[in-house]
Amino acid sequence: MTSRGTKYWSSGSIPLIAPELLGDIISATADVAVVISDMGRVLSVLVNPGHAAYGRLDHWEGRDIREFLTIESVAKLDAQLAKYNNGEGAVRPVELNHTDGMAWEFPVRYSFHAIGPDGALLMLGRDLQPIAEMQQQLVKAQMALERDYEAQRDYDTRLRVLLETTDEAVIFVSAESGRILDLNRPAAKMLGGDVTELSGAPFAQEFEGRRRGEFLESLAAAAASDAHTTVSLTARRSERKLSMEARVFRAAGERMLLCRVEASDGQQDVPDVLGANLAALFSKGADGIVFTDRAGMILSANDSFLALADVAQAAGARGRSLADFLSRGSVDLKVLIDNAARAGHMRLYSTKLVTEYGSQIAVELSATYLNDRSAPAVAFVVRDASRVDAVRQPGVPLSDDGMRSMMELVGSATLKDIVSETTDVIEKMCIETAVELTRNNRVAAAEMLGLSRQSLYVKLRKYGLLNKGD
């Protein structure tokens, strides 16, 4: 090859190569060279002497090369042969995987060259085993990294669970920067902040009269002492007297301090017994308990309510409106929420609960408006009134005053007039109560009383209540 490039070879100056030398040149140029017919039968095989791993492949000669290829490589070879047989000329090299009746495979990248009018092809192969081994090493390294990452996540999860479940106040501090690396909730409570706010904050600034350098030195000195030496401190935010015991350890080449904090002012952080008791009441209580948002959409419901409403699981009620389970629907829900929001709570509201399968159960509801939060909620206690009625006395005796008032009417009016007047009084009281509960919503009041709107207006006019509340 000279500066004249390919013209040198096309000008008839290609040197004649003796047949006995051509094989050596081809075998030295390629790692493996295979001559095949247009049907794929192996005519000759040459192996580079420098690739002893291949051994001798003379047994390939006279056999179909497909016998020594993997299944996916057979399809690749057939596609290449089809291109040559169709006269498409030169084709791009292709990677084929060989199997020589053994468990191992070796990949080879072949280029195809026509060498005669009989359709024979010369396949010059380049061994890809080093590349394949490198790829396998990369895959193994990637898998090792993933295992290390999963192990790291496992350790981090264990640490998080340990910090969240222990009642002991624990703080991790960098000995180099003096900043808080991590802490749990009891420690944040003692310091007078929250975990998010205190993470990354300068540790010395959380205590009164402490400078960063000397403070860390005092902690390191206490940690290096054989005795369990504690350091007395005063938290800047909470103003609490604290005692701290530190231990030094090294992680990832960085010195860290493990600080255990205790209260030395006599105040003890007792566990939230009330919260635990309320959670137990919610899960095991006999009465149904439902929490909704301001619009009446169910946020959570306990098992007693789910059993009362024939709902299989909590997910079947969560996200639905409580009105779906009330006989008067949105009327009942609006009365309950509006009165609870106005007065803070509403007691013993009688209605009927509609179960998931359409049956109705008499219930009594109490509602409490929970407004001391960014997102107000309403808590409902649902009691099965049919069971309550079964254990109540069949009748309630009149009081002495009520009996005396009824007796005074005897003789001054007929029995029919006495009964009519008493009925009118009860009817008027019921109408006034319904109008008050619905905040003068005549449509809702009529539905609550089971009357038509026209009948309600007639009775309001009868008792002089038509303009009341306007």
From TrEMBL:
Task: Quote one Gene Ontology molecular function term.
Answer: sequence-specific DNA binding
Query: One Pfam family this chain carries?
Result: HTH_8
Q: Which residues form the PAS domain?
A: 155-207
List the InterPro entries hit by this protein, alphabetically: Homeodomain-like_sf (IPR009057), HTH_Fis (IPR002197), PAS (IPR000014), PAS-like_dom_sf (IPR035965), PAS_fold (IPR013767), Tscrpt_reg_PpsR-CrtJ (IPR011785)
Q: Which GO terms describe its biological process?
A: regulation of DNA-templated transcription
Transmembrane stretches, by residue range?
none
- Give the superkingdom in one word: Bacteria
Mind telling me what this protein is named? Transcriptional regulator PpsR
